[in-house]
Amino acid sequence: MSRLVAEGLAKRFGRRLLFRDLALAVEGGQSLAVTGANGAGKSTLLRVLAGVLRPSAGAVRLQHDGRTVPPAERPLRSGLVAPALNVYGGFTARENLRFLARARRLPGAGERIEAVLRRVGLAARAGDPVRAFSSGLKQRMKYAAALLAEPPLLLLDEPAANLDEAGLAMVEDVTGQWRAAGRLLVVATNRPETAARCDDRLCVEDFAP
What we know:
It contains 6 helices and 9 strands, in the order βββαβββαααβαβαβ. It is an alpha/beta fold.
């Protein structure tokens, strides 16, 4: 089982303080919706939780399999799907995942890659360059990248962005399996129906200065 805890978090960009004294806890198998107005800091908070952005104050702890994941390792133990993330347009879908697998030194990379391509509905387009993908297929590619290492923590920033009905069904399937496996799910969203499906809710504006 896994656990995510944040205490006393603050994030400042120059003179602007987005949030302060923010605290949260998510247990394995649970989901948390992060809500708030545009610009309130939802995406920033997810990046802090993933370990790709350092907080101005406070601490984040990710626990998995009875150990606390070192801060430097947390980005490798988190799967982040966000609008600002890019994949390599000149690479095919399969080549993008091979590159990630090598960077993360994942065992059994070939089987993992083919399995995750099927999981997100990209198996038929695996040999196509990503630059030829529609916005919805690029979103599926981001899911493939986030899921490749089967991390304990999955962070989704507006998970429904650019997806059609089949894509939305894929997300529902992935997130349902994630929670059933005892992993952690954090979703940043402006959609009330998406937030309502989560076990708990945190509004970033509640921690505004």
